[in-house]
Design goal:
Cyt_P450_sf, iron, globular, alpha+beta, 422 residues, 6-stranded mixed beta sheet, monooxygenase, heme, 8% strand, Cyt_P450, 3-stranded antiparallel beta sheet, Cytochrome p450
Amino acid sequence: MPLPDPFPLYGPAYKRDPYPLYERMRAAGPIHRVLFPSGVTAWLVTGHAAAQRTLADPRLGKNHALGNDRWREHASIMPEPQHSELQVHLLHQDPPKHTAMRRYVTDAFAPRRVEELRPRFQEMADALVDAMTADTGSDTDTVDLVRCFAARFPFQVLAEVIGLPPNLAARFRREWGKVVAPVGPQDPGRPAYEALLRGLQGYIAEVVAEKRAEPGDDLLSRLVTARDEGELTREELDSMVFQLLVAGQEPVTNQITTALVALMRQPRREAVLERLRAEPELMPNAVEELLRLDSAFELTTWRFLAEDADLHGTRVPAGDSVIVSLCAANRDPERFPDPDTLDLDRAQGPHLAFGHGIHFCPGAALARIELQVALATLIHRLPGLRLAVPDEDLPWIPAVLGRGVSELPVAFDRAVCPRPRG
């Protein structure tokens, strides 16, 4: 029997609003073939219940070695030696290797530890708003919240948490995060892509060398020590530093933007923002609802079956990639009534914005605190916060797996001082 034509998951209209497509796919069944811009096809799981089962299914592995030739031809395109040296991090490992590697990062991102750092994160957020508003203040001024805040705050937080030395943090280039976007061998942008990879590898080597020379009580130092004591290979160490630097901050940048866009799209925008200003205790639940409504982690990374098997009533060949749409699952009406509506009082169940199962995001507690601090600070200090361009002009990033906008021009009334801290 011939396979059905795949649903295309790309293009400006899809990136701006993928939810009508996800709604049609959910209504037709839990799993569908999809096509990505690189030419790779995959099986996409959409419903909440099916997504949870898939993310916890022990038959599905993350190691790229499980991918078949059809997948590898289009998806495994990071050149050597970088593919071997940067792609053996947690997201591409299965137990027992995944279990052993994950234990190195869990302590650094433990809820109690990152909660203790909340006052420091608040200082960072306020300093960024101070700098952003130093030359603004009237309703005729606009600022790009990505450039001035959302792209800076998560990296500053990450550097503090993992122990990235200030001199190296100041030299990190945000464009290095683009190396996770697929650029095929024939793409005209391939030389620039490979140059970014080499630059990032050189930076990682500097980080490792500095932490080896001056170790501290921090995550990066512990990873370097694990390598020196033979517990990690060089490739595993470099891959984990790569994952921390790229996956540890860019998704939070994007989530700040999706949350702000969702808030500013509300029909009663100012009433919603005023309630969040007046009831700061509501912010944790608001963050969970905003994560559910429009997650920056739109799709998971690849999973593979080791042999042909049934998955939600469909025969999936071994080595074909299986992906879960976290965004589609989080708007499943069978799990969340009126799922397209922002409800700050929603009784939260287990949304899947951070995944599920053994690959649940280890930095989830940190991301939640970052979002709470970032949104509360911006909403409190920038009264009258509103889009400065039409909604349809927002530039949604063309990322394969994530959601967010590359620029967020906003206007606001005169900025106010930080809340007093006791």
